[in-house]
Design goal:
Elements: E1 3-8, H1 14-25, E2 29-31, H2 32-36, E3 37-38, E4 42-43, H3 46-57, E5 62-65, H4 69-78, E6 81-85, H5 89-102, H6 121-133, H7 135-143, E7 150-154, H8 157-171
Parallel strand pairs: 1-5, 1-6, 2-5, 6-7
Antiparallel strand pairs: 3-4
Helix pairs in contact: 1-8, 3-4, 5-6
C-alpha cells in the first residue's frame, strides 16, 4: 500500500482514519479539504483544482482523504488501495454535529487555515442524501477497478478499529 485513497460521506471520519493510517505506515497524509478550501471557505476554481490534484497524485506515496467527485476518477486511476467508509448517514450526521461543537471557533487540523468549523443546511442535506445519490455511483466505480487495486469497504467503526489493528500488526 503506497497510494491509499479514503472516501466516504462527510462525517465518516476519513481524515481521522488517514492520520491514524499515516502514522502506522509512515506515509504522507494529504487532506484534500486543506488543498481545496481557501481562507474564508472560498472554493478553488475548477481548472486550478484539477491541476492541484494532478500534481498531488504524482507523489511517490500518500494517503489521500476526500471525496471531490470531479477528480475521483483520476485519483482512482493511480490508487493501489481504496478505502470506502460506507457508514450509516445517522452516524455521519451525528459526528458532524459533534465536530461542530468540538471545533467551535477553532480550525480543524485537516482543513485550510481561516476556515472555522461550520455546519450548513447544504452540508446536512449532502450527508443525508449521500447513501441515495452518491453511494451507488461510488460502488459502481469501485466494482469496475482492476484486480490489482485493493478495495476495502468498512461499514462501521468497529471494522475501522479492526482494520487499523491488523495493519499495525503487519507493519511491525
Amino acid at each position: 500500500m503506497k497510494k491509499i485513497l479514503i472516501i466516504g460521506s462527510g462525517g465518516a471520519s476519513k481524515s481521522t482514519l488517514a492520520r491514524e493510517l499515516g502514522s502506522i505506515l509512515g506515509l504522507e497524509v494529504i487532506h484534500l479539504d486543506a488543498w481545496y478550501w481557501n481562507s474564508g471557505w472560498v472554493e478553488t476554481p475548477k481548472a486550478e483544482w484539477q491541476s492541484i490534484v494532478q500534481d498531488l497524485i504524482l507523489r511517490e506515496s500518500w494517503i489521500m482523504d476526500g471525496n471531490y467527485n470531479g477528480t475521483l476518477d483520476i485519483r482512482l486511476s493511480v490508487a493501489d488501495t481504496v478505502i470506502f467508509l460506507d457508514f450509516p448517514r445517522t452516524l455521519c450526521l451525528l459526528r458532524v454535529i459533534k465536530r461542530r461543537f468540538v471545533y467551535a471557533r477553532q480550525y480543524r487540523p485537516d482543513i485550510a487555515s481561516d476556515c472555522p468549523e461550520r455546519l450548513t443546511w447544504k452540508f446536512i442535506k449532502y450527508i443525508w442524501s449521500y447513501p441515495i445519490i452518491r453511494r451507488p455511483g461510488i460502488l459502481e466505480k469501485l466494482s469496475q477497478l482492476p484486480p490489482n487495486q485493493q478495495v476495502i469497504i468498512l461499514r462501521e467503526p468497529t471494522e475501522v478499529r479492526e482494520f487499523l489493528q491488523n495493519i499495525s500488526h503487519h507493519s511491525d
